[in-house]
Design a protein that fits this description.
- This protein is mainly β.
- It has 2 domains: 56 residues, no CATH class; 73 residues, no CATH class.
- It contains 1 helix and 14 strands.
- β3 and β4 form a beta hairpin.
- The protein is elongated.
Length: 156
């Protein structure tokens, strides 16, 4: 990575994608630590990238791309179960989790996770987290007629 830390790579694949209506292709690396699509410096050089910060545009070869400012009003973190867990049929459980934020700056205090469906009948409920708690937990509801099991590292 740019900051010289090691990154776990699961695989690489060729990916077709569209930016601002223009089609591109890149060989990308897949990592459980990265939630976003990132284009590396090798691809940018090969694509003859030129970034005009004042105009808010990026030229990729003969294609002009309009850049959009990203705000940091929302902070994205990965929430992972700390250990293997089973939630019985028709139960709610508070599951011990680890929060991986890739050391992104975020304001101290309380914050919440968004609800997320893990599978039909199993959801991670919106959960309040606080910097003052040493061991955060996520609430998971199992409305299925069978137990729901996930193994570390499950991620939301």
């Amino acid at each position: 990575m740019a900051n010289k830390t090691e990154l776990t790579i699961l695989e690489d694949t060729d990916l077709q994608f569209t930016i601002d209506g223009h089609r591109f292709m890149a060989n990308v690396l897949v990592s459980p630590a990265v939630d976003e699509f990132l284009l590396g410096s090798v691809w940018l050089v090969q694509s003859e990238a030129k970034w005009d910060f004042a105009a808010g545009t990026i030229s990729l070869g003969d294609k002009l791309i309009h850049a959009y400012r990203r705000t940091f009003n929302e902070v994205c973190c990965r929430i992972m179960a700390s250990k293997d867990c089973a939630i019985p049929t028709l139960h709610e459980a508070k599951v011990s989790v680890k929060i991986q934020d890739d050391e992104l700056p975020h304001p101290p205090g309380d914050w919440t996770s968004e609800p997320q469906r893990l599978e039909l009948g199993v959801i991670v409920v919106q959960t309040l987290f606080s910097d003052s708690h040493n061991q955060p937990v996520a609430r998971i509801c199992n409305y299925c007629n069978k137990p729901y099991t996930f193994t570390f590292p499950w991620a939301s």
